[in-house]
Amino acid sequence: MEIAMNNDAANKTSQTYLDFWLEILQAILEGNDTPQGFYPILAANQDKLNEEFRILWRDWTTAIIDTEDYPEALIITDIVSNFSSLIKEFPLGNRAQNIEISITGLEMTQKIYSREVFPLNWARNQHNLGNAYRDRIFGDETENIKQGLAFYHNALEVFTPEEFPEDWARTKNNLAMAYAQRIRGKKAYNQELAFANYQDALEVYSREAFPRQWAMIQNNLVENSIKKSKNKAYNGEIAIKYCQSALQVVTREEFPLDWANIQHNLAAIYLFISNGERLDYLEIALTHSQEALQVFLREKNPYEWAFTQRTLGFIYKEKGEIKSATECLQLSLEIFTPALLPRECFGSALLLGDTAFITQNWTVAIQGYEKAIEAVEKRREWATNEAARQEIQSDAIDVYIKMVQACINDGQIEKALETVERSKSRNLVELLANSELYPKDASDSLKQELRRLRSTISSIRQLAQVDNNSTFNRDSFQGFRSSETSSYTREYIAQQRELLQEYQRQLDVVFAQCQELDPAFTLTQEVKPITVAEIRDLIDSHTAILEWYIGTDSFQIFIVTQSSLEVVQFDKAELENLEVWNKQYLEALFNNTETWQDNLSEWLSNLSQILRLEEILNHPALANCDSLLLVPHRYLHLFPLHALSVSQQTWKRFNQETPHLQPPANPCLLDCFKKGVRYAPSCQLLQRVQQRQRPPADTRTLFAIQNPTEDLKYTDIEVEVIKRDFTPADILSKQQATKTALIDNLETLAQAHYVHFSCHGSFDFQTPLISSLILAGAIESTDSPTPTGQKSLRLRSGGQANPAKCLTLQDIFATLNLPKCRLVTLSACETGLTDTTKQSDDCIGLATGFLYAGSQGVLSSLWSVDDFATAYLMIKCYENLATADMAVALNTAQIWLRDATQSKLLEWIGELKLDSKSTQDIKGFLGSYDSDEKPFESPFYWAAFCAIGN
């Protein structure tokens, strides 16, 4: 048969690819469509099995399939289907790219292989697509398995055990393998599903009728038996029996690759049950690995060869033969590279790092861990949603911890700090970077729509995949306000996923418009890790950064200035002290608030000692610093580090230029840095924030929410005084401050330079995305129903708030855009809290939500704050903002409130020129104190607020 193809390509490369495809066509037409006859052609042309070929081949083939010449289109479809199945199993070249070519071909054939006309071809095509997606390397692993399962189930609609028993059994076996690999859901349940489908397949694949297929299912059951329970010895015995059963059929002479695969599995089983102690088992494992390598050759079976080298390396490591282990693992990594096989690379690289760590070979350990981190980041790049990226990061957090320690041990402090930054706030950094990515020549309306859809999709994805098994259970702490224990219903999650599909369709349309303007435009971009040089660019010569990093056996503080970088290490005992303090502090905060409040100074004094703050502050690097940037890690985000106690001697050393000052009775970190103490979730996130352009400082416009629930009387005074210094000042006050009104005023909000929320707030540890600023009409009786499946927020007053009527964190991510905003002030409770349960340290909270929305800085709180004290702290802070930056304005106000006597407060309040009723209320409140008494000296009143960002 003559195949006619239009070749519009003028260049030589395209002609080369076309000649290659014509050679494939000819071979298949001549009957060389078996691996033995076909693979030599592919082996000789491995350099052509790439993305360029895939795209050209797709275009050429589609042009033929779409023609009206149906007989020719059908022949081409048969050839493409055959080729796609063969290349998927081709053992040489770029395995990931081979699978992508296979998927492309199988998807093209669906145009001809419809279920109605060719039900058998359609079903086999669905089965083959299931295989391809199950083994797919590119893309999101969870989604790939999900798609593979769907294709298998499609195939089973045609392949019934009565009509097509062999096809049914084959599909059941592969379906079982997919369930065994599934990441989503409970592992034990997935293994049960796998086992059930293997048993189904064995109803057809009996040893007598299908000996080879029967034997390979016995082999597949090995992994299933290992994972089914925690009894290693028992599981190992069952797994060995499966292998022995398979070997009764599979011989090296008749089925060499299958035989080698079983030998490798036996090696893995004996390694598994040896537990690092049974040397006899390790010797047996070594023998089986070496036998597998007699068949698995690097030239012919590179993937299997590399996998066996990894297992061999593990065995040598357990035997204490570190040199041999290192050599095997390095060989494995020659095939398992981060770019092409990141999941496999991660396993080999992590094992290499751990092996070298044992002998303190820091150079090799760092090489291994660095490759493992590259593999993690490649997997994150391929993941399609934030939840998957966060899970990948969390599951691999140990490699970052080990890399940091190895670098410190090797004296590579810069690389250690850069690794710390690579592990922090990655999702948020990437979201920020991508939210500012637009096509060339895009209109403002297109940019706005693109941002809206990306933000909305991101927030729904996180909510739809919410983990209700958070390790931090806020409900065990009966504090001021806690979330209900009930989780979202399946119905509500299903609604969110339907919404997600609709928004994704809208985004596809907008993305097409973007590509018409800019063909090179993509929705995401690679975010390169921040370097130490770039970290230093964030600060001036009189500012220091203190960045914490909490590992599994120790923790560190990095001290960074423009001219120095030091690290202070804390041992396991000190980490244990910190963990105990953290647990007790949070229990007191949420369960015994009055006692916590009365003893807060003591809590902070103890934390200061645990963190060795005096030693840190006496470090020579801080000698000339008058400003501090704090970058906490994990649960340290929940604590007012700026209020940690310092000694009188340390205070004097930092205030030598002002000897006339009276030392505070109980000085803290704030007192040592006259140009302010501020926070950042990570240095890279701060870098993104600093890169934003904002209007000149001489323009001051305000948008404020004022007392929407009408039960915080001092917030009215707060906003009424603050707004005097702004023109214009747009205020949504009391009953006007509904969610509907806020949404209606989004354009006004987008023009504001300063945004102020004076209201109730609540953070939900179980579902951070419904953490809320409470708006008018949101508070309901405890009997009021909330929208289907949603949770409500309980307030300290005993009532509850409906998240649908609040400004939730999800709303902030999805709808707010603050392109001109210099500062958002969240004068409310718990607005600075963040989800600390995730190892990825993504700092998901209201404060970071507003950074994402566009603000350069945020003032937020760490606990349920006092209405009176907060109102006057905020008024003083805004007074200071006229001549100072965010951190200095807040810190100066905090020190002022702490040190102000009753008489000084009354004098200052007189200067505010309030109405007579407000003045009388305040005098009545302060009248119970003596004139020289300091009503707000306790850190409870002033230390809750933090300055975050630029």
Give a description of the structure.
Mean pLDDT is about 90; it is low at about 1-10 and about 465-485. The strands form four sheets. Strands 7-6-8-15-16-17 form a six-stranded mixed sheet, sandwiched between helices. A five-stranded mixed sheet has the order 3-2-1-4-5. A three-stranded antiparallel sheet has the order 9-10-14. Helices cover about 55% and strands about 5% of the residues. It starts with 11 loop residues before the first helix and ends with a strand. It folds into seven domains: about 10-110, no CATH class; about 115-205, no CATH class; about 230-295, no CATH class; about 295-425, Tetratricopeptide repeat domain (Serine Threonine Protein Phosphatase 5, Tetratricopeptide repeat); about 430-515; about 530-685, Nucleotidyltransferase, domain 5; about 700-950, Rossmann fold (3-Layer(aba) Sandwich), CATH 3.40.50. Strand 4, helix 29 (about 650-655) and strand 5 form a beta-alpha-beta unit. The protein is of the alpha/beta class. It has 40 helices and 17 strands. The longest helix has 28 residues, at about 490-515.
